[in-house]
Amino acid sequence: MTSSVFRENLLEGQVALVTGGSSGINLGIAKRLLTQGARVVIVARDAERLARAQSELEQIAPGCVLAESADVRDGEAMAGAAQRGFERFGAYAIVVAGAAGNFLGPAAELSSNAFAAVVDIDLKGTFHTFKACYPHLQKGARLLAISAPQGSLPIAMQAHACAAKAGIEALVRTLALEWGGADGCRVNALSPGLVAGTYGAEIFTRSIGVDALVGGQPVPRLVTLDEVVDAALFLLGPSGDYITGHTLAIDGGLSLPTTTGAAIAAAAVAALKAARR
Description:
alpha/beta, Rossmann fold, seven-stranded parallel β-sheet, 9 helices, about 45% helix, globular
C-alpha cells in the first residue's frame, strides 16, 4: 500500500458491510476500512474464496471481521446477511455494494439469461445490498456502489454491462434523494477504469490487449488498486460529507468525450472477428 493522505484511524468504531468482498476492488476496500479502524462484514457467494478473504483480513484486525456467504441476487439472503452483521457489530455507518460479473458478448447473440446474469448481479445486487442494510443504517451513513465506465460510455460487446452500470448510477441518484434529508445518508458511486491485477481487467486485456484499451486515454495506463481504494475512502469518510448522488470517475479520462471509446469498440469487434476465423 502506498502512503496515505488520510489521517490514521479515520473510521475508528464504525461498522461497514462490503458485498463482493472476497476479491478484487472490494477486498481492497475492506482491507483499507479495517486499517482505518472499522469493523467489516464481507459478503460473497463463493464460500471457499470468502474463507480465504476472511483469514487474510483477520491478520489485519483480529476479531473485527465477519464473513457471510450470500448471493446478492437473492434479496432475502442479503437481508439475512445484513441482519447477522448488525447483530454482531451494530449499525452500519458504511455500505459498499460491489459484487459484479461481466464477460464479452455481442448483443445479437446474448440470450435473455446471459443479459440477465449481469443485470441481476450488478444492478439488482446493488439494490438488494442497500435495501437489506437500510433498516440497520446509522443516521448519516455513507453508501457506495461500484460502477464502471460502461455506465456512461457505450462499449461494443458490453450491452449487458452498460445497461447494468447505467442503472446503478441512476439508482444512486434516486436513493440520494430518498435517503438524504431525515435519514442523512450520502449515496454515491465510484466508476474505476480497468484495475491492474483484477479479473475484470483480465477479461479485456486477454481479448483486446492493454495498448488498445488505454492507448487513447489522456492517462494511458490501467488504474491501480490503491488509487481506487483511496477514492473510495474519500467518498466514505468525512472528506466527502457534502457529496451525494454523484459518480466519481477514476478512469484516466476514458469517459471523456474522446475517440477512446470508439477505439475500444473497434478493437473489441476486431478481436471477436479474429476469434471466429
